Amino acid sequence: MSEPLVRLENVRFAYGERMILRDISLSIPRGQVVAIMGGSGCGKTTLLRLIGGQERAVGGRVLVDGQDVGALDREDLYALRRRMGMLFQFGALFTDMTVFDNVAFPLREHTDLPPELINDLVLMKLHAVGLRGAAQLRPGELSGGMARRVALARTIALDPMLLMYDEPFTGLDPISLGVIGQLIRRLNNALGASSLIVTHDIQESLQIVDYIYFISEGRVVAEGTPDEIRKTSDPFVHQFVHAEADGPVPFHYPAGDYATALVGGAG
Amino acid sequence: MGDVLRKLGSLAVNGVWQLGFIARFFVLILRYSGQSFLRLHLTIRELYFSGVMSLLIILVSGLFVGLVLGLQGYEILQRYGSSEAMGTMVALSLLRELGPVVAGLLFASRAGSAVTAEIGLMKVTEQLKAMDMMAVNPIARVVAPRFWGGVVSMPLLAALFSTMGIFGGWLIGVVFIGVDDGAFWSQMRAAVDFRYDVLNGVFKSTVFGVAVALIAVFEGYDCVPTAEGVSRAITRTVVSSALAILALDFVMTSFMFRGL
Q: Which of A31, B9, B143, B209 has the fewest CB atoms within 10 Å, measured from its CB?
């Protein structure tokens, strides 16, 4: 088996005093779509930021294509990022440009291709996400699902080896959600890339991914293929898959004794 | 008492930190300016937004300031029987002080606030992060062109402001009140020195341009990425720019125009 594209080894991360990731080890094999799941605020997005080099781990190593991301200087990091694509939660399209210019942006910034070729490439990328007809619209004129598809076209403009998705399903209607899910899978296969999805949409993920990691309180608490996850008896995964309010993940934020707080008047 | 001291202390320390951040940011802008000059169309676009789009307010304000200067100047000079000196008075006060300062204040509220809002909203909507993830440096691509757009527009706008002001003074003095046309212009030409008055004014307005543009891009880039954060950043841009302009003006004036 070849070396995985991304490997995290005992990664720890903290914002100041607040520990976000305690000890994470996971890997994304080449060509696969991997999902990372967990409740809101469990450090999923931080993981993406670590892989993209926007944050540096306090301990452990983050390896992307054999390179230690935390040890790269700005120039090498930028060189690595040119081979990565990241889809932000709400698309992060440039609002002062048309859809066409948004998708053309990375091509114009990083290549010296003639305008005719850029034109063709952009139209091909837009066609792949079904929005060739929207090329001249402005981001403000797009629906949430369309904006995310445009952002996806922009993300794949330079044919990256690694695609990262930050909550790609949030706030979408069921049709758009299915479309984005299928696109993630199809583009991954067509580009020969590897993908990492950070999400809490379990049902959609089970259909499109090859492997799932569950994260809670800064640790990987469960992992497996979609089939294994469906069958597992792990209480955390069970709570997550069946959307139960209480379980290993408590309903209440940690607090002192309730009765004492009410009588004593202090939380 | 202890509380007051502590607050004062923390204010001072925060102020120094902030100055340090701005200085470091300034160095970064200068470092990445080369990259942004290679794609000049970005800076030209910002020149249009900061400079050309501010023209209306600058020209109209300049005209009105000149009209008022004309009225007040005539009224005062007439007491000493030297109403022909009106041209000199209008020109000197505009070129040395009012042109750079008032144009600077207007520029901060018109263009500076717009730049802060734009960069701040780009931060809120993660556009800056997205750019950085695409291996495009946001300071070179977004910040530096807006900074230079401001620095270049400011002295040009101040010059236009002064020109309109002098025209306004002429309108009031020569056209409406009837001061002698020849005396108005010849006294002005005799009294205004190109290097001492005009160039010093241009220098002042350039310094104001650097200050306003730097504050505007810094506040936008540094803002807390929420709706409230952006609105506070805009307020800070206008307030700090105004204070910076007035303070710098005092310092520069005391060095330039001693007349001792």
A: B9
